[in-house]
Hints:
By secondary structure, the protein is of the alpha+beta class. The protein has eight helices and 14 strands.
Amino acid sequence: MMLKSDPRIETSIADHFRRTGTAWSMGSFGAIAEFHHVAGDPAPRLLDGGIVTDRGGLRLTDMDAIRPVAWEALSRRPDRWQQGISLCVEATQAPMAQRKVLTEIGVDHDALRDLDRGAILFDMGLDQQQVDFCIRTADPDLIALLRAEAGRSVTAPDCRAMPAILAAHPHRVALTRIGRVEVFQKIGGPDTGGVSPIGPHTHVLPQLLRARRTHSANTPIPEGLVPVAGLHPESPIMDSLGADRDFDRAAFDAFQHMLAAWGDPARNDLKSEIWHMLAAGDPPDRIDPPTDRFGRAALRVALRQAERRDGASDLLSRWRAAFDRGSDRSEDADTPGH
């Protein structure tokens, strides 16, 4: 069954291009490029269908193909939750080249900035369904080495490509059916103190790539869709670096409206029921808990949100003791892209 496009998503995306608190991601489970605005930097420059800064940028090229899925998920921390809009496409439309070896693509005529349109794209050959994860360089020495190593797996023990890439810090370019994310900053590693730079950055995680999954099992993506990008609105409980912040009711309400438009109706109804029962003073044994994992997660998220929004209470403590006693080891870290 073909799912209809939603014209509201184009308006929402255009609005979020202008919001410096919104983060973006593009890629797969294990190979992802993220774009974040850095506080104090100039506002991103608007492009046709995208934004760009001196650190990175993105462009979306096929809005009609996007099927938005709004979701909330648990955090390892009991006072937090995660949220996002997965920008999905029909599963039949998602596949990219799925190259298994380092491959020269050619001059990147579609680069976001004029100054990068003479550089050469190389697909790293990560064999991911929904993303061609590439590097881009104009460095003649690196180009020569990559051409010499083309046709080989970058993970091969004697392949010179990956050490050269890590040393040279070329641009990373994630290409999907709906556009691209480009990262100009250094690759996280020895040259950055072992951490990703603040702002746009990339992750290539071999242990996750081996799972060959299109997305985290904690993200409730409907059957028939594949997430190829993410829109991450401002969190009501964390800043852009993942640090705690005072509860922001406006940011909370804004995402709840998005959840109502593009989230799962049954889980939305469950959250509303939980909040109504708390307001009425009902004890936790008045509800039959959901039996599916995403329903259980929605119940727990509703309780955490009630505490951050309305404050702690003896009744809420009883509910959380009944349904939200601990954290699940499978929950993802509190980062936009993962």
